[in-house]
């Protein structure tokens, strides 16, 4: 890319020229968040993807999110700036293994966290996100047993919160399982006035010491309404950009990960850059293409979720 190009200007031009909408997750780098038409959590992004009248959806997020957008708007062109932007959590639940697992519980309702592949959604009765998970579980009749996949940490949190004893798949997110309880406890001691807030994909020992647990949108809203001036944030650090913008006089400290990891940025989310975003819009690729049967069999699980969350 010509280094003299103003990428912000060029991307704005391409948006108009191609009637494109940029949807960005909170874990994207700050520049991408700033140029996006909509920034949100997984639920908000799905709702936008389902309702947009743009011709092209440029998904600044990871692969499963762009797949979800494609399932919801199959006639639109869906672009992901870097096709390799995957997800360790989605990868931790291969559909062929899950199919065998599910066969052991033929009468169970399958609830899958939206962070899973499009193919896994074809084996799912109803999807959920971290924003609506409790509500979705509570919508299932009490006499029905539930399998929850793929995130075991969110699953355990939901078992505790709803009192429903679910069969859990053993998957996890590489970003949310690296937080160090010991270092966080020391940080809390040094900042006694700070609120410690965490995403439910974190391990149980982290959630136990949290003042507030929520999805990315839930955490952001909490920091806006709280009287506290300092927050220790246990989720991907990208969300801090919006927290800081909304509350410039408050301080946000990324929760420390353990020693094996240098930072709490998702390497998959961070594959997208402003330059790749520009190129993907210009050349309209990489494009998300799904087999028709995956759209046909997977979409109902997302539609059910959106109906319940409306
Ligand atoms: P939410 O933004 O829906 O809370 O999801 C977090 C996440 O891990 C997305 O990859
Ligand atoms: Fe997947 Fe975790 Fe990255 Fe979200 S933060 S995309 S769940 S690896």
Helices and strands in order, then pairings?
Elements: H1 7-18, E1 20-25, H2 30-35, E2 38-40, H3 42-51, E3 56-60, H4 63-72, E4 77-79, H5 88-91, H6 95-103, E5 109-113, H7 118-121, E6 126-128, H8 133-138, E7 146-149, H9 152-162, E8 167-168, H10 181-190, E9 195-198, H11 204-207, E10 212-213, H12 216-225, E11 230-234, H13 239-246, E12 251-254, H14 274-283, H15 292-309
Parallel strand pairs: 1-2, 1-3, 3-4, 5-6, 5-7, 7-8, 9-10, 9-11, 11-12
Bound molecules: 1,3-dihydroxyacetonephosphate and iron/sulfur cluster.
Description:
By secondary structure, this protein is of the alpha/beta class. The protein has 3 domains: 7-86 and 269-289, Rossmann fold, CATH 3.40.50; 89-172 and 297-309, NadA-like (Rossmann fold), CATH 3.40.50.10800; 181-254, 3-Layer(aba) Sandwich (Rossmann fold). Helices cover 43% and strands 15% of the residues. It contains 15 helices and 12 strands. The chain has helices spanning 7-18, 30-35, 42-51, 63-72, 88-91, 95-103, 118-121, 133-138, 152-162, 181-190, 204-207, 216-225, 239-246, 274-283, 292-309; strands spanning 20-25, 38-40, 56-60, 77-79, 109-113, 126-128, 146-149, 167-168, 195-198, 212-213, 230-234, 251-254. The strands form 3 sheets. Strands 2-1-3-4 form a 4-stranded parallel beta sheet, with helices on both faces. A 4-stranded parallel beta sheet has the order 6-5-7-8. The termini are far apart. The model has no long low-confidence stretch (mean pLDDT 97). 1,3-dihydroxyacetonephosphate binds at residues 26, 41-42, 115, 129-130, 173, 201, 215-216. Iron/sulfur cluster binds at residues 27, 62, 87-89, 115, 173-175, 236, 266, 268-269. It is found in: Cytoplasm.
């Amino acid at each position: 890319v010509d280094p003299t190009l103003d990428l912000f200007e060029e991307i704005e031009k391409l948006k108009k020229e191609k009637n494109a909408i940029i949807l960005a997750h909170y874990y994207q780098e700050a520049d991408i968040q700033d140029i996006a038409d909509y920034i949100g959590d997984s639920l908000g992004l799905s709702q936008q993807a389902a309702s947009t009248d743009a011709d092209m959806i440029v998904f600044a997020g990871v692969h499963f999110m762009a797949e979800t957008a494609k399932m919801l708007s199959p006639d639109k062109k869906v672009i992901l700036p870097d096709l390799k932007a995957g997800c360790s959590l989605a990868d931790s639940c291969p559909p062929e293994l899950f199919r065998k697992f599910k066969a052991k519980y033929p009468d169970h309702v399958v609830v899958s966290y939206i962070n899973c592949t499009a193919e896994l959604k074809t084996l799912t009765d109803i999807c959920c996100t971290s924003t609506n998970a409790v509500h979705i579980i509570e919508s299932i009749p009490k006499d029905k047993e539930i399998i929850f996949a793929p995130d075991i940490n969110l699953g355990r949190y939901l078992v505790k919160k709803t009192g429903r004893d679910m069969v859990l798949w053993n998957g996890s997110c590489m970003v949310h399982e690296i937080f160090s309880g010991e270092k966080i406890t020391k940080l809390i001691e040094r900042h006694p006035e700070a609120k410690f807030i965490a995403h439910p994909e974190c391990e149980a020992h982290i959630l136990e010491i949290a003042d507030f647990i929520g999805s990315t949108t839930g955490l952001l809203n909490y920091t806006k309404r709280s009287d506290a001036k300092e927050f220790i944030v246990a989720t991907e650090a990208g969300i801090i950009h919006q927290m800081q913008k909304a509350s410039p006089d408050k301080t946000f400290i990324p929760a420390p990960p353990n020693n094996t990891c240098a930072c709490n940025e998702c390497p998959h989310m961070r594959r997208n850059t402003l330059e790749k975003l520009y190129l993907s819009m210009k050349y309209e690729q990489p494009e998300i293409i799904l087999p028709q049967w995956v759209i046909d069999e997977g979409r109902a699980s997302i539609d059910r979720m959106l109906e319940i969350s409306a």
